[in-house]
Write a structure and sequence with these properties.
There is one protein chain. With 239 residues, this protein is an alpha/beta fold. It folds into two domains: 176 residues, Zn-dependent exopeptidases (Aminopeptidase, 3-Layer(aba) Sandwich), CATH 3.40.630.40; 48 residues, no CATH class. The protein has seven helices and eight strands, in the order E-E-E-H-E-H-E-E-H-E-H-E-H-H-H. Helix 1 packs across helix 5. 39% of the residues are buried.
Length: 239
């Protein structure tokens, strides 16, 4: 079991859609890629923290202290790019100026994603007009990854399905594993073939109180399994 930790910051969210192009919102694409990246890293034995798992607002002012409290070995912020003319295309990753380790990770990520067919725009220092707080103000080896240009007709074919977004997320995870010297588990875990129907019994603001409440129900009903899940995670499943 690996002892490394990776923080995954997800771009934008909620009312902040980020860049928009080709009928897609950056906040949505970044979330899908981040979730797949998170899953692949955990499957490879790496402990992770992800800033959001649904379409809610969680800006950098919240991500930065959350990431630093987690004390990750690697801190990622996953985005999709945009250009004013729509002519930009490819992948690039930003790092702290003069930080050789962050530049190394950025080059690994760009090289991996370029193997999918995306143009490699390379590793770039976060400075000037491209100064990103998630790179400059977080601990660990930090990178802001621009996966592709959301308004590029060239790049659209690399992200326009869930399978392609999964491939981008897994490729980022593979690059992080390469940098950390951790074996990347390429095979997807087998599904159990079981489905759980979740009933919201009560909504509590305090996570410890919620766990205590779940324990009460589990002791009272040994034939069922009650667990704690974010209400935001349940909402997209409501029929």
């Amino acid at each position: 079991m690996s002892t490394e930790k990776v923080y995954i910051g997800v771009a934008h969210g909620g009312a902040d859609a980020g860049a928009i192009g080709n009928g897609f919102r950056e906040s949505d694409l970044a979330l899908r890629v981040s979730l797949h990246c998170d899953k692949a890293l955990r499957n490879s034995g790496i402990a992770t923290m992800i800033s959001r798992i649904s379409d809610v607002s969680f800006p950098s002012t919240q991500k930065i202290p959350q990431a630093n409290a987690f004390k990750p070995d690697v801190c990622l912020d996953i985005h999709f790019n945009s250009s004013a003319t729509g002519s930009g295309n490819g992948v690039e990753s930003f790092y702290t100026p003069n930080n050789a380790e962050e530049a190394k990770l950025a080059n690994i990520l760009c090289a991996g994603l370029s193997k999918l067919g995306l143009a490699n725009r390379g590793a770039k220092p976060s400075q000037g007009a491209f100064s990103f707080g998630m790179v400059l103000n977080t601990t660990g080896v930090s990178n802001l990854v621009e996966c592709a240009f959301i308004n590029s007709p060239i790049d659209k074919k690399y992200y326009d399905t869930e399978e392609k977004l999964e491939l981008i997320g897994r490729t980022i995870a593979k690059g992080v594993c390469e940098y950390l010297g951790v074996e990347f588990v390429d095979a997807l875990p087998e599904k159990t073939g079981l489905y759980a129907v979740v009933k919201q019994v009560i909504a509590l603001r305090d996570k410890d109180n919620a766990r205590s409440e779940a324990g009460i129900h589990n002791r009272a009903d040994p034939n069922s399994f009650y667990y704690v899940v974010s209400v935001d995670e349940i909402k997209p499943l409501r029929l």
